[in-house]
Design a protein that fits this description.
Elements lengths: L3 H15 L9 H14 L4 H18 L5 H18 L7 H14 L1
Helix pairs in contact: 2-3, 2-4, 3-4
Length: 108
Amino acid sequence: MENHDDVLEAWLAKLLAAFELADVKVDTHAVLNLAGVAAHAVVRPAAPLTTFVAGLAAGLAAGSGQATDQAAMAAALGLAKQLAAAEAPAPESPAAGAADAAPQRAAE
């Protein structure tokens, strides 16, 4: 049985070949990392949507000559990750949680 990394790399190679992009290097870890941030900071379905838009933006930038493939991908992934992370709810402070719980204990 193949591990996930092998399966992902084979799938990526198949996709790149099908779209005639076999010479493009994709940072799988960076794409998956972005998907994880989007899924946890926004909502789960934001993961594929965010990676698609980042990839589209990178492709347009590289295709128009604004940047190399690698620079365009790095910039698009970085911006999308920054935007997704900014959507994460602020962590609740322990003091706020204790204050919220105090009235419940008094009512018990």
